Amino acid sequence: MSTADSPARIREAERFGREILPAVSRTFALSVQLLHGELGRSVLCAYLLCRIADTIEDDGHAAPDEKVRLLGEFVAALDDAAAADAFPARAAHITGDAAHVELLRRTDVVAVLFRSLPAGSRAIVARWVGEMGRGMAEFTHRHPDGLRIQTVEEYREYCYYVAGTVGCMLTELWREHGHVPAARYEALWSRCTSFGGALQTVNILKDIASDAERENAIYVPEQTLRAHGGSQATLLDPAHLAANRAAVGEFITLAWADLDQAFEYLLLLPRRAVTVRAFCILPLLYAYATLRELTRSDAMLRPGGVVKISRGEVRALMIAGLAALPSNALLRRLVAVVRARPFTPLPSSS
Q: Residues 6 or more apart from 261 whose CB is under 8 A from it?
């Protein structure tokens, strides 16, 4: 640990991380807050580091070579306190969502939190954030004029780097902090990339229009779109809506299968690992509900279109999901309901 990382500076770094988390997280903010102790600090730090890398990748104005350079410097800064302190000035020109940019500007503070983690957690986070950053750099270099995924195979590769790595990192952290016995670890490991990838696919599907319009990124493969008579050039063109919707339907089918694999990952977690199960169930339930709505909508293929679940359903799923945690049978029943219709709590008998 650097001599500059005083206890007061570490406390300030953690306070900053917890304060900014809700502003930069679409899926995991509440889940991260359910984790406690060193595991909670490790996952908080890991999420913020992943979000910083994502902010660099998503900047639609920075030159590709500049983004590749910054991603490399960011990964290197994990092992170099001086580089971490200098990084915000090096990345001062990166633009994007205000909260995400604010987090990027405080990379040096997040690095303080990172350096304060236990050695085992620090090694795991560094390995997988590094893998993510290098993968993002590779795709930025591969698609210098804006991300344009060409095939399903390339889509899977991309999802591994930006989300599958998160599933791997979390699974190793569960084991590192004693929440997963050795006998269960291999089964979880075989499904961990699906856990991250499923959530990523749902987010990509619901954000098709905004990703294309704001971030110059199209993830639905050109090959798939052309097979149905569409193309990435006409992705948001109303005249090609039917063809594009048919292509997206293939990815909705893929997302259902990945989500079911991710759900099996959750069910494999020991019941005694209550906070870890809680961390996993909420984003999965929200993803199931969002995917259900995506099957009924074409809004994501219209300029400015969005697909969301209601705040009421978000609250109801949070309550029901946490209540069902001790029972895999109850969780299966809950997921079956959410797949079929919007979830609302049963009316009170009073």
A: 191, 194, 195, 198
